[in-house]
Design a protein that fits this description.
Shape of chain A: globular
Helix content of chain A: under 10%
Distance between the termini of chain A: 37 Å
Largest interface: A-B, 22 and 25 residues
Distance between the termini of chain B: 37 Å
Structural class of chain B: mainly beta
Helix content of chain B: under 10%
Radius of gyration of chain B: 14 Å
Radius of gyration of chain A: 13 Å
Number of helices of chain A: 0
Number of strands of chain B: 11
Order of helices and strands of chain A: EEEEEEEEEEE
Number of strands of chain A: 11
Strand content of chain B: over 45%
Oligomer: heterodimer
Largest sheet of chain B: 7 strands, mixed
C-alpha cells in the first residue's frame, strides 16, 4: 500500500479551522513534514515535527502527532482564502522524503 | 531563505527528442539534490537522488538511461529526458538539500518544470 495517505479534498469557510489528516507507515521516520503547494509553484515547507514530540504550535498552525497510530494532523486556525492550496504530508526516509498525494484545501468566503 | 530555481518552467517537445531541465540552488551550496515527478492529483514520486560529483541513485522502476542526471557542481543538477515520449509528459520538480535549513537536511524545492511531449 501507499507509504503516506491523506484525504484528497477539504472545503472550509473563511474563519473556520481546517484539519488535514495523514497516516504514515515508517515508524523510524525522524521528522514528519507539512508542505504547501500553490498553483504552478514548488513546495514550501510549512512546518515539521520531530518524531519524539506530540504537538507543535507555530502561529496559526498546530501539528499533532500520534506515533502509536502513525497519525499526523495539521490544524490551520482562522483559515483564510490565501490558505487555499494543496497540502502534502511527508515522512523522512534516510535523506529522501516520501510524500502523500496531497490534500486540496478550498476556502470559501 | 534558500532559493532553488528550475529552467525551463515549461517545455513542449516532439516525441523522440531529448529535453534537459536545470535545477540551481541560488544562494546556498547543495551537496544533495533530488528529482521528483508529479502526475495530476498524485503525490511527488522520487525519481533519483544525486550527490555532487558522484553518480545518481535511482529509485526502483526509474530507467537511468532514460532519465540522465548530472550533478556537476554544488549549485547545479540537470535532468535530461532522452528520447521523450508522450507518457513522459509530467511535472518535474527538483529539490536541494542544505544542512543549514530549519530542520536537518531540509529540502528546498524548485518551482517545477512542466514537460509536454507531443
Amino acid at each position: 500500500g501507499e507509504d503516506v495517505e491523506q484525504s484528497l479534498f477539504l472545503s472550509v469557510r473563511e474563519g473556520d479551522s481546517s484539519v488535514i489528516n495523514c497516516t504514515y507507515t515508517d515508524s523510524s521516520s525522524t521528522y514528519l513534514y507539512w508542505y504547501k503547494q500553490e498553483p504552478g509553484a514548488g513546495l514550501q515547507l510549512l512546518t515539521y515535527i520531530f518524531s519524539n514530540m506530540d504537538m507543535k504550535q507555530d502561529q496559526r498552525l498546530t501539528v499533532l502527532l500520534n506515533k502509536k497510530d502513525k497519525h499526523l494532523s495539521l490544524r490551520i486556525a482562522d483559515t483564510q482564502t490565501g490558505d487555499s492550496a494543496i497540502y502534502f504530508c511527508a515522512e523522512s526516509k534516510g535523506t529522501a522524503l516520501i510524500f502523500g498525494k496531497g490534500t486540496t484545501l478550498s476556502v470559501s468566503s | 531563505g534558500a532559493v532553488v530555481s528550475q529552467h525551463p518552467s515549461w517545455v513542449i517537445c516532439k516525441s523522440g527528442t531529448s529535453v534537459k531541465i536545470e535545477c540551481r540552488s541560488l544562494d546556498f551550496q547543495a551537496t544533495t539534490m533530488f528529482w521528483y515527478r508529479q502526475f495530476p492529483k498524485q503525490s511527488l514520486m522520487l525519481m533519483a537522488t544525486s550527490n555532487e560529483g558522484s553518480k545518481a541513485t535511482y529509485e526502483q522502476g526509474v530507467e537511468k538511461d532514460k532519465f540522465l542526471i548530472n550533478h556537476a557542481s554544488l549549485t547545479l543538477s540537470t535532468l535530461t529526458v532522452t528520447s521523450a515520449h508522450p507518457e513522459d509528459s509530467s511535472f518535474y520538480i527538483c529539490s536541494a538539500s542544505s544542512s543549514s535549513g530549519r530542520v536537518g537536511n531540509e529540502q528546498f524545492f524548485g518551482p517545477g518544470t512542466r514537460l509536454t511531449v507531443l
